[in-house]
Amino acid sequence: MLWQLTQMLWVGGLWLLHIGLLPVLGKIGLAPLLIDEIASMLDALMVGFAAACVIFQALVLVQAEGLASLWRDTRGQLLMMALFACAMYVAVRIGWPDAVRWQVFSYLVLGFCGLVLVLQPVPGWSGRVREAHP
């Protein structure tokens, strides 16, 4: 259950920010520069939150499936790629702040990793209901 809650928070938050909140701010008439400033601040906060959630999900995966699952399992590979996208976003934002396209690329990689991760099964859950043994 923690896996699903964490996943909903970071993946849903990433997509809701750009599909829901920012277009609405444009529709209500805020100045484009103000929207860009809000987007920049919220993007950085969301990527940091996503990194924390990805680390938590990796810990849940390791506990349920073992340490090797980070490299051998699709979920582990997606989590590692998402963590790399977070690190790349932060590195580009700090080291090369004019490279907005690389920040957007990192954000999109993070978002699409999250979408593919949503389609994967929850660790430790086979999808079947266990029957009680008498």
Automatic annotation (TrEMBL):
The chain crosses the membrane at residues 12-35, 42-62, 74-92, 104-122. Keywords: Membrane, Transmembrane, Transmembrane helix. The keyword Transmembrane helix applies. This is MFS transporter. It comes from Pseudomonas mandelii. The lineage of its organism: Bacteria, Pseudomonadati, Pseudomonadota, Gammaproteobacteria, Pseudomonadales.
